[in-house]
Write a structure and sequence with these properties.
single chain, about 350 residues, mainly alpha, 2 domains, 11 helices, 9 strands
């Protein structure tokens, strides 16, 4: 009897290359590429909202390391037996290149880092979260390909032509033989790209603000992660018959729904101000002026501006920020309240 042959996707023959003594790991490259994509897209969207490009870099220096640590902590805390059970070496906690970054921990602690960064940069945290959301999920889409190179986090056996071939050494990690399995990494990567498109479309169509684009990302991502999690066969702790990540998905989805509803009811519309100070060397000098003369309609009168030189009346303060004193025109200063998005830019 002739055995039935099935089409399948091949797994990479290796996930590590060596440049002399230096290992070059595909998993690490996928994570790094994802981070760069997230920062690039956040910068594009932030500038389109009227923010400074330097602000994104400032926030990223806090959010990225916090996110990586949070992702690893979530993985270790939810699967402690992989590192502390008899026969396992806890030092492997630091072997991040072998995989094991929990997205829930990465987002949670990454958000803490982003909040700190926004506070230090004088930026609106909800507005920044909205700007960053599509890039974050695209970074997840790219990062999932690291699982492909590591031959990990695959699903149940399948005969579908897009099934993924897993070799014996990697299948043995979950006590299974070599075979064709569901490519759950691919499912999630495609889903993540779809979520990014959805958030970009909804943000453009409905002018989402005050964190609602981020909450939409959370809900949409979780909706896909729940059914993909059901297909996976890797080790996971269970509670009442469900994988721990399924319970986490339920909680996170509820958080997204509540956050979206509360934001829409309390803060309809979109922020007009995303940064509360400029990033130049004269920030401190500009703050009193911003507080004294800023308004929604523009700056029309400067009779309340005083400085150390004894000037009490500005004979001409224009809407574009130029100050004219005794016929002399000072350099233009655009206060942050009146920054406008770059021409042609779309958030």
């Amino acid at each position: 009897m002739t055995p039935t042959l099935h089409a399948y996707l091949p797994s990479p023959s290796q996930g590590v290359w060596h440049l002399g003594p230096i290992p070059l790991r595909a998993y690490a490259f996928c994570i790094i590429l994802g981070v760069f994509i997230a920062i690039w897209m956040a910068d594009w969207r932030w500038r389109a909202r009227g923010g400074h490009s330097s602000t994104v870099n400032q926030v990223a220096t806090w959010a990225v390391p916090f996110g990586l640590v949070g992702g690893r902590l979530y993985h270790v805390v939810t699967d402690p037996e992989l590192y502390f059970k008899h026969g396992n070496d806890w030092v492997h906690i630091f072997y991040v290149w072998n995989g094991g970054l929990g997205i829930w921990g990465a987002i949670a602690l990454g958000a803490v880092g982003a909040y700190i960064g926004c506070r230090r940069a004088g930026a609106s945290f909800p507005a920044f979260a909205d700007a960053a959301a599509p890039g974050i999920v695209l970074a997840q889409a790219v990062g999932r390909w690291g699982n492909y190179f590591n031959q990990e986090l695959f699903g149940k056996p399948t005969t579908m032509p897009w099934g993924l071939r897993i070799d014996a050494s990697h299948a043995a990690n979950v006590n299974l033989p070599a075979g064709i399995y569901q490519p759950t990494f691919l499912y999630e990567s495609i889903w993540d790209v779809g979520v990014a498109v959805l958030v970009l479309w909804a943000d453009r169509r409905f002018k989402l603000g005050h964190g609602r684009a981020f909450f939409l990302y959370v809900m949409a991502y979780v909706a896909g992660r729940s059914w993909i999690e059901y297909l996976r066969v890797d080790h996971a702790n269970h509670i009442l018959g469900l994988r721990l990540n399924d319970w986490t998905s339920i909680v996170v989805f509820a958080f997204g729904v509540i956050g979206f509803i509360v934001s829409a009811s309390r803060h309809p519309g979109r922020e007009t101000v995303v940064e509360f100070k400029t990033t130049g060397p004269d920030d401190d000098a500009l703050q009193p002026a911003a507080a004294a003369v800023g308004s929604d309609s523009g700056i029309h009168d400067g009779s309340g501006i005083h400085d150390a030189s004894g000037i009490h009346d500005a004979s001409g303060i224009h809407d574009d920020g130029r100050i004219e004193v005794d016929g002399a025109q000072d350099e233009a200063v655009v206060l942050p309240e009146h920054r406008t998005p770059a021409e042609g830019a779309t958030p």
